[in-house]
Amino acid sequence: MKIIIAGGGKVGSSVAGTLSSEGHDITVIDRDPEVIEHISNTLDVICVLGTATNHETLREAGAAHADLLLAATEQDEVNMVCGITARKLGTRHVAARVRDPEYLHQTAFLQDALGLSLIINPEYECAREISRILRFPSASRVDTFSKGSVEIVEYRVPEGSRLHGMSLRELPRAFGARVLVVVVERGGAALIPNGDFTLQSGDVLSLSGSSHELRKFFEAIGQYRRPVKNLMIMGGGRIAVYLTRMMEDSGISVTVVERDEERCEKLCDLIPHASIVCGDATRSDVLAEEGITRADAFAALTGEDGDNIIISMYAGRCGVPKIVTKVNREHFSEILESAGLESVVTPKELVAQQLTRYVRALDNSRGGGMETLHRLADGKAEALEFRVSEGSKIAGIQLKDLKLKKNVLIGAVIRGGKSVIPNGLTALQPGDHAVIVTAAGRLTGLDQILEGGK
Q1: CA 178 to CA 115: how far, in whole Å?
Q2: Per residue in 52-80, is it b (16+ CB within 10 Å) or e — as a string?
Q3: Which domains does the chain have, with CATH numbers?
Q4: 408 with 193: CB under 8 angstroms?
Q5: Cα distance between residue 168 and residue 177, in whole Å
Q6: Residues 6+ apart with CB under 8 A from 256
Q7: With helix as H, strand as E and coil as C, how does the chain read?
Q8: 320 closest CA partner among 390, 233, 413
Q9: Sign of the C-alpha dihedral computed for residues 444, 447, 453 and 454 taken in this order
Q10: Cα separation of 150 and 212, whole Å?
Q11: Cβ contact 166:193 at 8 Å
Q12: pLDDT value at position 365?
């Protein structure tokens, strides 16, 4: 596909790298010569220096024949105008980054009125990711499929765990929970295991199942954590506002610590039911006074990676059971995990993931039915949800009789809104939803899981 990205900042450059690696023809527009030079030196993409709202710049970038334009500049209004102009020039689909909370409830209207195919809000997506983690604090990460019918959670096997030395075939009998280990991250590699695979301390597991069965599993291994009742947030930016609203809808009390007085006044209007503290959360006395030792969870959401990391580590020393750390540089993930900070979120990676899912759906002209995509094991594996169509080659055939590609696993089946952990006798039926886990490369259609499938 020919894809234009307007704006070469954090989000734009991340998305450009992801989509370029998948074989798409990428052109990046930015008005900053240094940004253009950096991207041209680091990515295999075409770069155009100019303003994204200028129709001549868009023509030069190939908007008349583009399949998709992503408007990802820092200004919402610029992104919307860029999208309108690109559509007028002939671009087939337009996605725009729109970040202002005031636009959140106007998404459907904006898409219809402005001709936008997709509106992306990085801060909102980040808040949603954090809210999922906080609602299931036993896991370091939670991905949902089929409107919550199935979840894939991430969990590191600690030293001394009962799981050490146990084969996956033994898990159902040992713990009585219908869950499936779909990926094991060990030694920097993502492994798609079979029943004979033996777990070790330090393994990072991705487990699929319903929320009820996953909770049963964590209770059985003695790692279940009680639900979050009160949350402390460091930083009062957009993510904090979205997250606070989500938490309050779930009955969770929230304290936001923000150092800027003017921003604190705005927060009192934006999230009136939260406790707003005007203070410096990098100071231990401020955190102690506001009750960090009594918090069930702590989220570090400032724009400074260093502050977020250091104060998250301090929160861990204070005994906070659940800690979520926002970072802008994704290569910090492994370092933070080794330091005990396992729940790390990166907004630009979430946007790249969302747009990758959208592009793959557009790219599959035969209608592969992909509805959800999540990256697992630090991007080394993917979990994709497909709807089984009437003409699918795998419909009606028991899984034991299917010849799947290497490093591909059917992690869950959703039928009639209920999840099923599949076995060899399970046969997918038209209308089912299947969660496919793969470390074998890019999938755009369900039938591609078969040997020889394209």
Answers
A1: 45
A2: bbeeebbeebbbeebbbbbbbbebbebbb
A3: 2-120 (3.40.50.720), 127-220 (3.30.70.1450), 231-320 (3.40.50.720), 350-449 (3.30.70.1450)
A4: no
A5: 12
A6: 233, 235, 236, 240, 244, 267, 271, 274, 275, 276, 277
A7: CEEEEECCCHHHHHHHHHHHHCCCEEEEEECCHHHHHHHHHHCCCEEEECCCCCHHHHHHHCHHHCCEEEECCCCHHHHHHHHHHHHHHCCCEEEEECCCHHHHHHHHHHHHHHCCCEEECHHHHHHHHHHHHHHCCCCCEEEEEHHHCEEEEEEECCCCCCCCCCEHHHHHHHHCCCCEEEEEEECCEEECCCCCCECCCCCEEEEEECHHHHHHHHHHCCCCCCCCCEEEEECCCHHHHHHHHHHHHCCCEEEEEECCHHHHHHHHHHCCCCEEEECCCCCHHHHHHCCHHHCCEEEECCCCHHHHHHHHHHHHHCCCCEEEEECCCHHHHHHHHHCCCCEEECHHHHHHHHHHHHHHHHHCCCCCCEEEEEEEHHHCEEEEEEECCCCCCCCCCEHHHCCECCCEEEEEEEECCEEECCCCCCECCCCCEEEEEECCCCCCCHHHHECCCC
A8: 233
A9: negative
A10: 10
A11: no
A12: 46
Average predicted confidence (pLDDT) for the chain: 90
91-92-97 Cα angle (round to 5): 75
Taking only the tens place, the pLDDT of each residue in 80-104 is 999 999 999 999 999 999 988 777 7
Distance CA 104, CA 196 (A): 48
| Amino acid at residue number 200 | Q
Strands 25-30 and 2-6: parallel
454 pLDDT higher than 70: no
pLDDT single digits (tens) 147-203: 888 999 999 999 999 999 999 999 999 999 999 999 999 988 999 999 999 999 999
Q: For residue 335, what are the CA distances in angstroms to 88, 309, 350?
A: 46, 10, 19
Asked if 148 contacts 204 with a C-beta cutoff of 8 angstroms, the reply is no
Cα separation, 209 vs 177, whole angstroms = 9
Res 373: pLDDT: 84
Is 438 in contact with 384 (CB distance < 8 Å)? yes
Cα torsion 173, 177, 181, 186: sign: negative
Work out the widest C-alpha separation in the chain, in whole angstroms. 66
